[in-house]
Design brief:
With 236 residues, this protein is α/β, with parallel strands linked by helices. It has one domain: Rossmann fold. The chain is built from six helices and ten strands. The chain has a six-stranded mixed beta sheet with strand order 6-7-8-3-9-10, sandwiched between helices. It is globular. It binds adenosine-5'-diphosphate.
């Protein structure tokens, strides 16, 4: 079945001016992100992966080119509109979790739930990531894997159309990493969220529907994966 386009990037560039030198982090990059797909973005350090993810997530704006979310042109949206887009449509999962240290696991998730009109149940989401017994713990009382599971619950509770993950297993060992990837896979399958995972860890790409390979600020290759591998079978 053909999937609808959720997001369209049309000849996006992002240039950073560093004194006399212009750094071309993204060069005329175009991409259609499809509704409900699981995308893995691969590429060496400095190839533009984070810049691409930040632009998709409304945390940064392109220097030129256009970006559409559905029919809406986000490239000329004001800061207020971009904030609303980030809050309502996007969930983020980062390498180092970015939890608020003086809030418990439950409170971290509750804070996110308050940003949207129809959140999932906080207790239910924490249960689904296997943390029903740790809800009242602070981040410092949780392992890295547990903190990442809280971060995933915090993103998932909003039922985001887009779930953006920047090196989500970068600080975890393989066994815990597989659990984290399995949760992302489940959110993609059961909630229908479009999931974008940025990583330099090539084996993770075998769980993707499509793999984007970045090189020097452009998309060098897009590979369709007819038979994605279940997360628990990925090894690195
Ligand atoms: P990746 O995520 O693949 O490691 P990035 O998107 O972080 O790549 O970076 C792409 C290029 O843009 C790199 O050359 C990086 O140094 C540069 N860059 C990224 N962010 C900034 C910034 N805020 N200011 C200046 N240069 C930046």
């Amino acid at each position: 079945m053909k999937k609808n386009v959720l997001m369209k990037l049309d000849r996006i560039t992002r240039t950073y001016q560093m004194g006399e030198v212009a750094v071309h982090a993204l060069k005329e990059t175009s991409l259609d992100i499809l509704e409900g797909e699981l995308l893995v973005v691969l590429g060496p350090s400095g190839s533009g992966k984070s810049t691409l993810l930040n632009i998709i997530g409304g945390m940064d704006s392109p220097s030129s080119g256009e970006i559409f979310f559905g029919k809406e042109n986000l490239s000329n949206a004001g800061e207020q509109r971009l904030t609303r887009y980030r809050r309502q449509e996007v969930g983020f999962v980062f390498q180092f979790y970015n939890l608020i240290p003086d809030l418990t696991a439950k409170e971290n998730v509750e804070l996110a739930a308050r940003l949207v009109e129809n959140p999932l149940s906080v207790a239910q989401v924490l249960k689904e990531v296997g943390l029903e017994d740790r809800m009242d713990h602070f981040p410092s009382q949780l392992s890295g894997g547990e903190q990442q599971r809280v971060a995933i619950a915090r993103a998932a509770v909003k039922r985001p159309r887009l779930l953006l993950c920047d090196e989500p297993t970068g600080a975890l060992d393989q066994k815990i990493g597989q659990v984290v990837l399995g949760l992302l896979e489940r959110i993609n399958r059961e909630q229908g969220s479009t999931v974008v995972i940025v990583t330099h860890n090539t084996p993770i790409s075998s769980m993707a529907h499509r793999v984007i390979r970045m090189s020097s600020g452009t998309i060098a290759e897009i590979i369709e994966n007819k038979n994605p591998l279940p997360a628990e079978r990925i090894e690195w």
